[in-house]
Design brief:
single chain; 66 residues; mainly alpha; 3 helices; elongated
């Protein structure tokens, strides 16, 4: 988890449950439904990052963009 996400989780966990729902509604207004990464998206991103770190990627110059 990113440091910012950890901070947000810790802050929200300290709030009374009634206030947590209020904060959730505020955050939800900033995140469009189609902008939220699914668990599958996050797994794919993690896998891509791991492959990149191992040097398993295609160079931009190697792609025929025509």
């Amino acid at each position: 988890m990113s440091p910012v996400r950890n901070q947000l989780v810790n802050l929200i966990d300290c709030m009374p449950e009634q206030e947590q729902q209020f904060l959730f509604e505020i955050v939800r207004r900033f995140a469009l439904d189609d902008d939220i990464a699914t668990l599958e998206d996050l797994a794919d991103i993690k896998q891509a990052n791991e492959e990149f770190e191992r040097g398993q990627f295609t160079n931009h110059e190697d792609i025929d963009w025509k």
